[in-house]
Amino acid sequence: MAEKTPELELILINISGQDRPGVTSSLTEILAKYDAQILDIGQADIHHNLALGILFKTDSERSGEILKELLFKAYELNVQIRFSPISVEDYSKWVSMQGKNRYIITILGRKLTAKQMAKVTNVVAEQGMNIDGIQRLTGRMPLTDKEQPLSKSCVEFSVRGNPLNKEQMQSDFMQMAAEMEFDISMQEDNMYRRSRRLICFDMDSTLIETEVIDELAMRAGVGDKVKAITESAMRGEIDFNESFKERVALLKGLDESVMKDIAEHLPITEGVDRMMKVLKRAGYKTAILSGGFTYFGRYLKEKFGFDYVYANELEIENGKLTGNYVGEIVNGRRKAELLKLIAQVENVNIAQTIAVGDGANDLPMLSTAGLGIAFHAKPKVKQNAGQSISTIGIDGVLYFLGFKDSYLSDGNSNTL
Question: 384, 380, 361: which is closest to 372 by C-alpha?
Answer without folding.
Answer: 384
